[in-house]
Specification:
alpha+beta, 5-stranded antiparallel beta sheet, 12 helices, 25 strands
């Protein structure tokens, strides 16, 4: 008997909104221990190096799809070997595009790979280099029913009091396209440039928009942790693009500058062992990388988000909906606001930015605020506490759309405060059988509070018909799936279901806005 499984798209309102006109700003952006344990079977380990390694004896003439043409990253076993290679280039057509400050590695350009191969010593290995860009939002990939955050993000994140000192003492390095002057920054942001023209940074203002989510000197940007020690590291060239070599160098540089959090709102679909080493260096030195999942709407995570050592961040809208463009994946970590978020724009103005790019910066802010307010020095320790106190979204547990859920600061910072009652509808799934005119609603109700919930009721309204069912008790921090049989209304292929969870008298819900959801379902043949 045919059955339709329709994922819910929660619709509170359809609001027209303005996305930033620059493609690159519109574009983009279990706990970490569980991700690390799954590393041997991760996408990174199974697909990363399909085309990365060459040898001098069998040089490749064909560059794999997506790799940068006419260049390689070349690693040498010793500094002496590298120096001998450099000395051999006199009079050749080989161009040195970059030299690592952290290993015996060069970025090399050439007109013919054979020209390069004849100069390579036997101990040299070559890697393909790949472009790294702000991930663009593909045309038509935005869910038309998304609702932007506009100026409502701080309240949505559970921040209703003074947060001006949140993040104090935490060092953050934003790796992006650089920084333009803007009143949001004040005068206390350190700027470094590893690529492009430092006198003309951020030609598309993507880096300015992302860095602004860490500052609110003029009070117009929803910066959660505005007191962090902030560095902006430009990794893009004059076209607004970067590459794996430069990204890896920037990670090494950021760690050596003392960065504890490294949010990266740029990405690529491939990687190599040179970036592997930079990721490992950050992890070994206690730095945590937070990276945007990508905006192509595909079931794959961009690098560096695909590394098991990093936090991969997806985007949601104001109504906790998936916006369509945000990439998905089995190792997706969490989700954060990523539709219509106020950021700095060009010409010292403001704009609305969407994508997993702002979502990654906002997730980083949550970690910085947790570190400062709960006096946690280790970013990984802070993240593990956050992971234990995320709000469920989607199916119970970790899922491909939303990861482990989404953060709200009032929940995280009050994780050990007794007396907090909090019910939330995390998701709904409708299973219908038009042939028997019957169906059932499958609902995940979560309890992100600190007290057990008991005596709650779940109320529905379907095309004017009302239903109610009692819920069993839900322990603090737990979620439960509930199934409710429902008849199908006649003469319609689409139904609207309004659902609401209500706590009994004496259990005052601290976040009643998350108690209800309005959803539409297709029930036609």
């Amino acid at each position: 008997m045919p059955t339709k499984l329709i994922l819910v798209t929660a619709i509170f309102a359809v609001i027209a909104y303005v996305l930033y006109t620059k493609t690159s700003v519109n574009s983009e952006s279990s706990n970490l221990s569980a991700k690390l344990e799954s590393a041997p079977n991760s996408q990174h380990n199974s697909e990363t190096h399909l085309f990365e390694l060459e040898s001098k004896s069998s040089p490749s003439q064909d560059t794999p799809a997506g790799a940068l043409e006419n260049e390689r990253i070349v690693n040498f076993s010793s500094a002496e070997s590298m120096e001998a290679f450099l000395a051999s280039l006199n009079g050749s057509n080989i161009e040195i595009l970059g030299q690592s400050k952290y290993s015996n590695t060069l970025r090399v350009g050439f007109s013919s790979y054979q020209d390069l191969a004849q100069h390579l010593p036997t101990d040299a290995t070559t890697l393909y280099n790949f472009p790294v860009t702000p991930p663009p939002i593909e045309n038509g990939s935005i869910n038309p029913n998304v609702v932007p955050f506009n100026g409502r993000m701080m309240e949505w994140m559970g921040i209703t009091s003074d947060n001006s000192q949140w993040g104090a003492g935490v060092s953050v390095a934003v790796l992006d396209t650089g920084l333009l002057p803007h009143p949001a920054f004040g005068d206390d942001v350190q700027s470094f440039s590893l690529a492009g023209d430092p006198n003309h940074p951020d030609l598309d203002s993507h880096g300015t928009a992302m860095a602004s989510l860490w500052r609110s000197a003029d009070g117009n940007i929803p910066a959660i942790a505005p007191a962090v020690d902030l560095m902006s590291i430009q990794i893009s060239d004059d076209t607004g693009s970067s590459d794996l070599f430069t990204l890896a160098e920037a990670i090494y540089f950021a760690v050596d500058q003392g960065a504890q959090l490294i949010p990266i709102s740029m990405g690529t679909t491939s990687t190599n062992s040179f970036l592997d080493g930079a990721i490992a260096y950050a992890t070994d030195n206690g730095a945590l990388i937070i990276a945007s999942a990508g905006n192509s709407g595909e079931d794959t995570l961009y690098y560096p988000a695909a590394y098991p050592e990093t936090l991969s961040i997806a985007a949601i809208d104001y109504n906790r909906n998936h916006p369509g463009f945000s990439n998905t994946g089995e190792t997706l970590t969490l989700t954060a606001p990523g539709v219509g978020v106020i950021t700095a724009g060009e010409n010292q103005e403001y704009t609305l930015s969407s994508g997993t790019s702002p979502a990654a910066q906002i997730a980083g802010n949550v970690i910085a605020a947790t570190m400062s307010e709960l006096e946690i020095n280790d970013p990984l320790e802070a993240w593990e506490l956050i992971a234990d106190n995320l709000n469920e979204l989607g199916v119970a547990g970790q899922d491909t759309l939303f990861g482990l859920g989404y953060p709200q600061l009032d929940v995280i910072l009050n994780y050990d405060q007794s007396g907090r009652y909090d019910a939330a509808i995390a998701s709904t799934l409708f299973v219908s059988d038009p042939q028997t005119n019957s169906g059932e609603m499958q609902i995940v109700v979560s309890n992100p509070g600190t007290e057990d919930l008991f005596g709650a009721t779940l109320d529905f309204e379907i095309e004017g018909n009302r239903y109610s069912t009692p819920l069993p008790s839900i322990s603090a921090g737990e979620s439960h799936n509930f199934t409710v049989p429902l008849p199908l209304p006649s003469n319609t292929d689409v139904i609207t279901v309004n659902s609401q969870v209500t706590l009994p008298e004496g259990q005052n819900d601290v976040r009643p806005r998350d108690n209800g959801i309005s959803a539409r379902f297709s029930i036609g043949n």
